Amino acid sequence: MDTFDDGLNDIGRSNTNVTSSNNLSSPPPTLSSSAPPVTVRARKRREEAVRRLLHEVQAIEQNTSEARFAESNEWLVCRTTAAALEKGLDRDYHTELVQQAKDNAGRIGQICQDHAEVFLDSVGQVAALLEPTAHVSSGLKEAQVVLQSQTAGPMHNAADLHAQAVAAHKRATALQQVVVACQQMALQLERARKQASAGRPRAALAAVERARHLLTQPLNSEVMTLEETPFGKRALTILPKVETEVLGQARRGLNRWFLSLREDQGIAAGRAVLRQCAAHLSTGHAVGLGAAAAYPWRAKTADNLLSRLPQNNKLARATRAAYWFARDAPQEAERVEQRVQTCVQFEQQQARAKNASMNVSMQQNQSEQELWPELEGIVRKSEALAAAFGWYRCWDSQADLLVDAQAILAAAGNDTSRHGGSRHGGSRHGSSSRHGKSRSLGFRATTSSKSQAFAELSSTLQGSVALNTAASTTSQWNELLHPPILYEATRKAEEEAILWALPESVHPVRRAELAYQLLGRSDDFVQYYEQNRFGETKVEEGGKERKSYLSSLTGDDVTLGNDRIFFAKLLPHLTASVVGFCAVEAALELGHFEDEDEVEGNGEDNDVGEEKKTDKVQRPAPQNTSSRFRTSSERYERALVTELGNIFRARIVRATLPELVRASNLISAFRASLRIVHPSSAVRRHDKALLALDADILMKAVKIAQDEQLKATASIVAEDPKTPLLVTDPGSGTGGKNAAGIPDPEEVGLPFGLAQMKQEPQKAEKDFQEQHRTSFNRAPMDEAYTFSQSVPVVLRSLHARATAVAAFAIAQQELGISFPEKTGSNAAAFVMDGVEKCIGVAAMGMKDSDNVIDEGSVEKAVQIMANITALQHCLSRLYGTLLRGMTHVGLIRADEVEETFQYADKSLKAAEKACDAQIGSTYSLVYEICRSRIDTHITYALENFNWVAKATRDMPNAYCEGLIGYLKSVFASLGPMDEGSRAGLHFSCCGHVSERLVSHFSGKPGDVTTMDSSGVQPMTKIDAFGIKNLSIDCAELERFADSTGVPQLRDCFSELKTLTNLMLDKDLPNLLQPSNAAARRRKYPILSLEKVGNILEKYVGTGLSDKLMGSTGRNQEILFIDKKEVQQLLKIVKAQTH
């Protein structure tokens, strides 16, 4: 191939040479137009031949290398053929070209011959012009010499001087322009620095733009600019630094704003919003519980609704008991206003003291005093709620609420009277009493005034359950129902000032936003703002890390702290922080920002002059980028509310009842605050779902109240001495009506009929007291109630807890929760269910407070039973007070009154049934204790007792006297019991004594089938004297039964009397005969022959010695049977029983 390529190259070169030679020698194409196109035909033939040759060569190249070497000869042949073909073609072509050259040369010669004459004429004319031209040339040369010698020299010198002057003027003008431009540049640089330091990005960047315009503006016609000078180059390096300083100053201001929000500003605004929303929610539309004129109107409305109920309804009568609208409603309204004014004045004093310590001006103090009426609403709402539920009509205003079970348990171990709150009574456990025991006038027996009572009470209530030392200046109900963040106003003026100034306080954001926009870096601003404003923090919970937006917002770890700290501190802090965040976002959305730089800039421009205004380069007006991060703001706000709802739902199940109420009121105010402070946010549509509690929160609340009531009752009753409360004012507690039919008011400290539950002494006890008084000239015995000191306190805790449950129901209604469907008002039915459960556990706690079975104290068991009975007696009045309160606050509407009272009646019956169950259990407990003590006494006294006396006694046996003495002590301790229960226990105890004595007398020794489970063994031997002594004991027991004053109590000993009389009856042999069965039944109707047979088996008959001694020493009224007669009578009895 290489050889072939070389040949082709040679052919190309030869063709090129021939062509070039032909072109040089050939005439123009116009002259050879008639020549035949030999060259074209030859070229075509040559190209065709070369094409065929190349085609064959390419076909050979596609063969393998072996074929290539094998056909080398063919390659040589082809090359030779191609060279020959080329030479032949060139020869023909050369011949044609030579012929054409000859023809063209002939034609040229002919043309030159035809035009020769004209050419020669032209040459002659040119030759004739040579002489005039020389003359003119000499004249010009002379004129040139004169011009140069006389005119051009001076003019040239003058022109040089003029050029020098113009150049100097230009340099001076340029220098002046440079100096002026440098002055202006320095002025703009200084202004830019000052504005940047002052945090005014618009003015600073405007100065930078003017400086940059001065740098690039031409100074002269030579297009010289200031940036070409050394000063300009230096200024060019300064301008970016000024812009950087503007950004840095804007970022520092933004960082300070972020820091102020996290430290105090955001949460202060949130606290102010929460406080104002809670105050306005409490007042409502002038008819809310917090409104000043609403209480009398609501009380009258409730009284009208309740007056329409039929009188045959027990609860309807209970609502009117001890309540008279014309008397009680004005007093309660006045008391509420007094409490409100007292609490507000106390808050004012606290604020003044703080302002004085901080040297606040008098003008600010005056502004604070003008804003104080806004705080009255929430305090009035709490006090009005307590007054509506009859708290101040029933209890002392300074009495502890006893709702916080945690605090009550924390104070366990204090003085035994730490839960006192009644003005009445003392303990019967102390100095001399009618039962021979010491009696003490503890539990404020000698105190009748409220001030002394409160002094004693507050001295014992210490720690968590201690009464507030400022009880007269603060509201316990307000502290119970509302978190402190809703009513504490120590920093009220300062926080509200921050809130009202919030739209203007966002200027650091606007300035930073403006600075970034003017520099064309809006995206950087949005990124930086979102990074610092909408941050998130990693917290560890349950061993796993999760994102916490609340921790990032507040700077606190929301997973730390127990439940008590969460509800007391963290939850108010979180809600205030979220409200503050929404308030700031709303302020940013308003866009209320006055740019002072623009005003100042206009003034400065006027000073510069009109000519400078045209030179100033205006930046485009910045666009508000708030809309760019509004989506991020709403997303972050939703994340905050969602996380708060999740934490609240997780913690609420472990809350106490006061924490439930406070948290519910706080969340209600929180939702209202969000709606007011940022209503345009898209998250407002989802607040209810995000903050909603679980559906079973109502049942959990009832369960929490039930558990806390049980704990509180156990703590209250634990230190109760279980002795009746003494009556200090015998004339109190009539519970009737005056001559005008107006019911007497509730007895403060002993409400709901407790004051009427006084013990009625028995007839024997009255006789003893009268005899004791007349014989020794002593004062009558103290009168006592049927209950002990713990009952009023337990009842007070129930009353306060029921009011707290009602407040919780009101808060849940405001939050929009759905109560379970019940008859009448669902919310009122929920409250009734909670009260019913609390009453049940309170009765249970009162019963299970002491292990009286192990102690064997009948007095305590009886007092417990009497306490539960007293609690049961108060339930109807308690329910009536609660129903009036729920009607007052609006939980029961006008169309729901009758149905709600029907449901309340069922709830009351269920509560009374629960108390009945505990009373029955306690009654059984009392009987078990008495029976156990009686069995122990009989077993101990009759063990190894010798009934073969050989003689009669003039007095009862020692065991009988001891048994009667025990029964006297037992029956004397039954005073707190009601008459029916007391009589029943008399019969039970006497019947049990009779049963044990009959078993001991007529039981069969060694017979396990008839053996008594009490351990009293039947006697093995007895003679006639022993039977006589036993009959004396029976008669003494009957006399004791008669002395108790209980009718027919002596009948309990009828069987024992029947057996002893039969065994002493001289007609016994005849009466035992089968033929005399009718006479025997008439004389001894309850006689058992089987028991007679058992007695005969152990009867010790008279023997031979007794017969020899005769009957001189025998009692003729007693039947003496010898041994043979005993056997005969035994056979007769067995014959009739088998």
Automatic annotation (TrEMBL):
<dbReference type="GO" id="GO:0000145">
    <property type="term" value="C:exocyst"/>
</dbReference>
<dbReference type="GO" id="GO:0090522">
    <property type="term" value="P:vesicle tethering involved in exocytosis"/>
</dbReference>
<dbReference type="GO" id="GO:0016020">
    <property type="term" value="C:membrane"/>
</dbReference>
<feature type="region of interest" description="Disordered">
    <location>
        <begin position="1"/>
        <end position="39"/>
    </location>
</feature>
<dbReference type="InterPro" id="IPR007225">
    <property type="entry name" value="EXOC6/Sec15"/>
</dbReference>
<dbReference type="InterPro" id="IPR042044">
    <property type="entry name" value="EXOC6PINT-1/Sec15/Tip20_C_dom2"/>
</dbReference>
<feature type="domain" description="Exocyst complex subunit EXOC6/Sec15 C-terminal">
    <location>
        <begin position="853"/>
        <end position="1098"/>
    </location>
</feature>
<keyword id="KW-0175">Coiled coil</keyword>
<protein>
    <recommendedName>
        <fullName>Exocyst complex subunit EXOC6/Sec15 C-terminal domain-containing protein</fullName>
    </recommendedName>
</protein>
<feature type="region of interest" description="Disordered">
    <location>
        <begin position="414"/>
        <end position="442"/>
    </location>
</feature>
<dbReference type="GO" id="GO:0006893">
    <property type="term" value="P:Golgi to plasma membrane transport"/>
</dbReference>
<feature type="compositionally biased region" description="Basic and acidic residues">
    <location>
        <begin position="609"/>
        <end position="618"/>
    </location>
</feature>
<feature type="region of interest" description="Disordered">
    <location>
        <begin position="595"/>
        <end position="632"/>
    </location>
</feature>
<feature type="region of interest" description="Disordered">
    <location>
        <begin position="723"/>
        <end position="743"/>
    </location>
</feature>
<feature type="compositionally biased region" description="Low complexity">
    <location>
        <begin position="14"/>
        <end position="39"/>
    </location>
</feature>
<feature type="compositionally biased region" description="Polar residues">
    <location>
        <begin position="621"/>
        <end position="630"/>
    </location>
</feature>
<feature type="compositionally biased region" description="Basic residues">
    <location>
        <begin position="420"/>
        <end position="438"/>
    </location>
</feature>
<feature type="compositionally biased region" description="Acidic residues">
    <location>
        <begin position="595"/>
        <end position="608"/>
    </location>
</feature>
<dbReference type="GO" id="GO:0006886">
    <property type="term" value="P:intracellular protein transport"/>
</dbReference>
<dbReference type="Pfam" id="PF04091">
    <property type="entry name" value="Sec15_C"/>
</dbReference>
<dbReference type="InterPro" id="IPR046361">
    <property type="entry name" value="EXOC6/Sec15_C"/>
</dbReference>
